[in-house]
Amino acid sequence: MFHHYEFIIVSECYNTETRYSDLISENIFKKSNDHGEKMNKIYLITIFILSFVTSACSQTSEKVLSSEDLFNLIHSEEKYVIIDVRTPPELTGQLGAVEGVLNIPLQELAGRTGEIEKHKNVKIALICRSGRRSGIAQKMLADKGIETYNVVGGMIAYNRFLNTR
pTM of the predicted model, to two decimals? Predict the structure, then answer.
């Protein structure tokens, strides 16, 4: 019975996005008078929340480039291609674009993987404004067997790096 009760609490927390404090005050203490049982329930809920947050926040890939790595790649003899997954207007906006990028917006990526597959024999760097969209693109391309490197922090970090050099 105890395990069944815990499952109901956990699934209620997850499905309705109940705040942790509401969950404690409304669900845990309502049906229990035993202090030990209350602490067990709090402990289990805390473990569940930490597990959920940890899995939601973990990156799917370890293949990343720092801004300095990207700068060094651009100025090296190594062959590479940089794919910017922002929309075309963003490339001419305040953050600008790295010279010579191939612009394939994230929303068009699935239909344009053939263009990227031509570059499988060289290092492929993905960049966007902050690194979020390029991270999504990296996952999409990895699912198709294309190895890429996400530029951490995107153009924001790259411009910051260039301004501090």
Answer: 0.64
